[in-house]
Amino acid sequence: MSLQNPVFIPGPTNIPEALRRACDLPTIDHRSPAFADILHPALDGAARVMKAQNAEVFVFPATGTAGWEAALTNTLCPGDGVLAARHGMFSHKWIDMCRRFGLDVSQVDAPWGEGIPIARFGEILRADSAGRIKAVLATHNETATGVVSDIAALRREIDAAGHGALLLVDGVSSIGSMDFRFDEWGVDVAVAGSQKGFMLPVGLAIAAFSKKALKAAKTATLPRTFLSLDDMRAGYAANGYPYTPSVGLLNGLKMSTQMLLEEGLDQVFARHARIAEGVRAAVAAWGLDPCAVRPDLYSNTVTAIRTPDGFDASRIVAHAAEHYGMAFGGGLGDVAGKVFRIGHLGMLTDAMALSGIAVAEMCMADLGLDVPLGSGVAAAQRVYRRGDDNMKVAAE
User: Fold this and answer.
1) Cis peptide before 12 (omega within 30 of 0)
2) pTM, two decimal places
3) Using one digit for the tens of pLDDT, what is the confidence trace for 330-342?
4) Which of 107, 242, 347, 366 sits CB 3.0–4.6 Å from 14 for a disulfide?
C-alpha cells in the first residue's frame, strides 16, 4: 500500500496534515487549565456539527462500537425491549450487542440494499400497547451497503404511533459528512466516531444524549463503568475526565470541528454529495449497479458496487492494493464477495475522487470485466468540471 495515495475505504479516512499535527502534542497535565481549553471547545464543536445544541455530548477514548454500548448501557435495563432492523453488517453488529446485554430484541429483517422498514416499525410500535419496547435502533448510514435511511421519517412514525421509545441512532459514517439534525429530528442518542467525517485517527467515540435519554439514564441498570455518563459528567464539571483522556485526539477534535464549521456545514454536505454523484455516474458508465436499490437510499459517504454474478468482488480490492497501492473497501457479511466499496468521505476532493475511480476502472479491466478504460472517469468528470461559463464568472 502506498502512503502517497489517498484511501477509499469508508473509514478511517484521509487525515489532513493540520489535524495530524493537532493530535501530535507534547504531554500536558490533563488535570490542568490547559486541558480545559481543549476539552470544552471540542465538546461544543461536536455538538454544533451534530446540530445537538439541546443535548449533552460525551466523548470516550474508544471507537464507535463503544458509543453503541454507551447508548445502550446508559439508557436501558436488562430484559428491556429493543426494536431494530437487520439490513447491513453494522445494524447486525448492534443487534448482536443488544442480545449480549440480555435485551429483548424485536428484529426486522430487510434485504441488504434496502433502508430501515419504517412503515413496519410503525406497525410494531402501534401493536406494543404495553410499552415493552424501550428503544428503537437506527443505522443512519449503513456502511456495508451504502444505504442511508430517513431518520426524520422514522421519528415521525414513532410519534404517530404514540410510542415513548427512545430513538438511538448510529451516525458513525454520516455525521460530519452528511446532514444530521439531532435536535430537529428528535434523536435521543446519536453515536459518531473520530475516524470518519471528523477526519481524525481512530480513538474517540462521540455520543450526544437528549434530555429524555439523560432522564432514562437515572433508572437504567445495565452495567457500565468506563462508559458511565455520571462519571463523565462529574469529570467535565471539574474540567477533566474520570480517567486519563486522549488529549491529542481531543485537540484534534477541537480543530476538526473548527475546520468543518469554517468550511460551512452546508458546503461540507454539498461537497460530499457532489463527489458521491460523480462516483455513482462512474458506476453507471461501467454498466454496474450500486447495492442500494433506489436513488433515495444512496449514501453520500460510501458506494457499495455490485459486480456481475460469479465474479468475486474481493479480487478488485486485493488487486488495487497489490498492483496500484490503493485501498478500497471489501464486501461484508451477506454481501461479502458480491460488492466492493468506494468510500468518499472526509478529506476528499473531486480530483482525489477521480484518482480512485481511475484505479478501480483499471483493476476491473485488468481482471477481465467489460469496463472500457476512461468510461467512468469521463462520466465523473462531467459531474465535477465547472464548465467554461463558470470559469468566466470566477475570472470576473
Assistant:
1) yes
2) 0.95
3) 999 999 999 999 9
4) 347
